[in-house]
What does this fold into?
Amino acid sequence: MLAFANTSANRFRFKNVNCGTLAVDDAGHRPCWLANLFRWEDTMGRQDHMEIKSLEDLLLQQLEGLYDAEARWLDQLPSVAECVENESLRSALAEQSAETSQQINRLENAFALTGLNPRRKRCEAMKGLIRECQQVVAAAADPHVKDAAVIAAIQKIKHYEIAAYGATRNFAMRCEQVGIADLMQQSLDEEGDADQALTSLAEKIVNANAARI
It folds into this structure.
């Protein structure tokens, strides 16, 4: 049985990366301002880097990535709901907002089971998916067609979350963290149900309305 609480915090610190040998003067020294610039750029580009030496490390990384992903999506949901035309779709988005809040709570509970405080690791996948969703929201389009596009964008996010929760659940089971696995399964079930509900709404109503344009 793993004991995250007894694990040294040093295992989870971000790794510092040297700037290398770029930009030296004739004496072989890098100007201070330039060294600081390279160091800042390196930190910005690598701040989410983490060593993965074990499955426990990977499990923690997954939890941190999901925690960031769900927080980003929760922030985005209100603006998506404002742009849709179909009332059923707007209601589905309100339900997703409530579920996402619950999923964030589950992730915080999962962190508690590891003995560590919740923390976010920047999720580049969710950043990209949300950026695409924002482009759909901002697009000049017929309202019914935009609803269809919004559902497609949201389902890409749902499919990512399904994959992420499924993998995290499996890692937790292998690490004998049954409590974490159960929490991930609850969120996985919710994401699967949400995806199916969006598919049904699209096929029965939204896509049909868009096809009439």
Summary: The CA atoms of residues 54 and 175 lie 10 Å apart. DSSP finds six helices and no strands in the chain. Confidence is low (pLDDT under 50) at residues 5-26, 29-46.
